[in-house]
Design goal:
Layout lengths: L18 H5 L6 H10 L4 E2 L5 E3 L3 E4 L5 E4 H11 L6 E7 L8 E5 L29 H4 L10 H9 L2 H4 L2 H14 L4 E2 L6 H21 L4 E2 L4 H8 L7 E4 L11 E5 L11 E6 L9 E2 L7 H4 L3 H10 L7 H11 L3 H4 L8 H9 L5 H12 L12 H21 L7 H9 L3 E9 L7 E8 L10 E4 L13 E4 L1
Parallel strand pairs: 8-14, 11-13
Antiparallel strand pairs: 1-2, 2-5, 3-4, 5-6, 7-14, 9-10, 10-11, 12-16, 13-14, 15-16
Length: about 475
């Protein structure tokens, strides 16, 4: 998951009615609106999806029964003008016929109540990016392996019932309609930061391709004509788009099936990896199942051997197998810490987490002495030692490939392999924060060896806290 911070006069940090949000000087006055909700019993929405009525007074279930004055408690808090002072009101679930009292505790930065449109908040979905449910798989645009032209993709978005059913979904439909009219600037001022991220990253997985099909995407570098020559097209409007049913399909979010065209070298279709995020770079992708064309294998044996090794690794053992690979290659970064290969039994012992192999412990001690990283405390903790050394080996692999040039032909081989069946589509917003005029710009990167486009890097995805998350990954920027 990615994390973003947006600052704008049009949006605020918390989507909830915290003490801090209630005390802010806004029009209409939030404190008055809050009091009106109490005096004219109006449901407050909560972060867990409930609707709560906070009446002026409510009978607490105590012995003897007592009446709790919500109006008095709230107006006293307002008069104190101190947002850091906590207060408690009592309400009940609108579905509860017995009106069982529920405490509503509010602090400076904590509240269960959502700051809706009446309070100057979002009129869209509550919660973060995932709650918006805008991915192709969320709205069913990937169903049945349907192929889309620019027009049929537009109609699929406009006619999508799940998008039509929500405010944020209708905002996506409006954006698609604008794109069809060659307008890529949208008013997103009413979105929260989570909704903004969902619009850019998730809805961008089909809005970006729609822009591409409409001829609104631009290429990185002077490669546009070479790309179309490569795929045998004159423009993208000859391409049909397919969205894989898997949310994270290999190398791609969308597969462009070229009408009447099959790649003459590999027979593969063109894959499109749609990336969002603040930079438009997106996340690194796994190097497992990375297919290298046969004609490249004899020319670049080391780089190809490294790429093919990734398909044989697992998430838990990849760092160790890569360490052995570079030890055998006599890469100095690994020879500094290793004096032999790591055995299969030592790898299995480390993964099991009950004990930690002496040889790996020796390597880890050397890494600590050299201050290779700020390792987490792992004394008498074989599980943490495994996480620490896994991270170190993955970081070393990244260093020897990216910085030490241990595989001189690695980037060219990757670019030449990817150019057969891969382009990356980056969706970037300008400005990057929420605005009433956010322009979505879609930029195409076609990794190409001859033109040296597409920066290729091995990425570190594990952490000493969480351990390995995937096989070794790489980025193409």
């Amino acid at each position: 998951m990615r994390y973003f911070e947006f600052r704008s006069q049009l949006t605020e940090a918390s989507p909830y009615l915290t003490g801090d949000e209630l005390m802010k000087d806004r029009k209409p006055d939030r404190k008055e609106t809050f009091l009106n909700f109490i005096n004219n019993p109006t449901p407050f929405k909560t972060k867990d999806g409930k609707e709560i009525i906070i009446p002026p007074k409510i009978a607490l279930q105590s012995d003897p029964p007592t009446e709790y004055d919500n109006v008095k408690v709230f107006t006293t808090w307002v008069a104190g003008k101190n947002k850091t002072v906590p207060f408690t009101l009592y309400g009940y679930d609108v579905k509860d016929t017995e009106q069982t009292p529920i405490p509503i505790n509010t602090k400076n930065s904590v509240s269960p109540l959502i700051k809706g449109a009446e309070f100057g908040g979002s009129k869209f979905v509550a919660g973060g990016k995932e709650a918006a449910s805008l991915k192709p798989a969320d709205i069913g645009i990937d169903a049945g392996g349907a192929e889309y032209t620019a027009e049929s993709l537009l109609q699929a978005i406009k006619g999508n019932q799940k998008l039509q059913a929500t405010e944020i979904g209708r905002k996506v439909i409006d954006a698609a309609t604008q794109i069809a009219n060659k307008d890529n600037t949208f008013d997103l001022s009413e979105l929260s930061s989570g909704e903004f991220a969902a619009f850019r990253d998730d809805a961008g997985e089909y809005l970006g391709p729609l822009m591409m099909l409409k001829g609104m995407a631009t290429f990185t570098g002077d490669v546009e004509q070479a790309f179309f020559d490569h795929v045998g097209l004159t423009s993208f409007d000859q391409m049909k788009m397919v969205f894989p049913t898997a949310k994270n399909a290999r190398l791609a979010d969308a597969e462009g099936a070229v009408a009447g065209f099959e790649n003459p070298v590999s027979g593969n279709k063109i894959w499109i990896s749609v990336k969002g995020g603040k930079s438009g770079k997106g996340a690194a992708f796994s190097m497992g199942q990375f297919e290298v064309p046969k004609e490249l294998k004899e020319k670049n044996p080391r780089a190809v051997a490294f790429l093919e090794l990734q398909d044989k690794t697992t998430t838990k053992n990849s760092a160790f197998l890569n360490a052995n690979f570079f030890y055998k290659m006599e890469a100095q970064g690994f020879r500094l810490y290793m004096d032999r290969e790591i055995t299969e039994s030592e790898i299995s012992e480390a993964i099991a987490g009950k004990t930690f192999p002496k040889y790996l412990d020796t390597i880890l001690d050397k890494l600590k002495v050299n201050n290779f990283a700020k390792f987490l405390e792992d004394k008498d903790n074989p599980v943490q030692k495994y996480k620490n050394i896994f991270y170190a080996f993955e970081a070393l692999t990244s260093k020897v490939v990216n910085n030490d040039n241990a595989l001189p032909n690695f980037a060219p081989v990757v670019r030449e392999t990817l150019q057969q069946n891969f382009i990356k589509l980056s969706n970037k917003m300008a400005p990057q924060n929420i605005s009433d005029a956010n322009a979505m710009n879609s930029v195409i990167t076609w990794p190409n060896r001859e033109m040296a486009t597409g920066q290729v890097e091995v990425a570190v995805s594990s952490s000493m806290k969480e351990g390995p998350r995937s096989k070794l990954r790489m980025k193409v920027n």
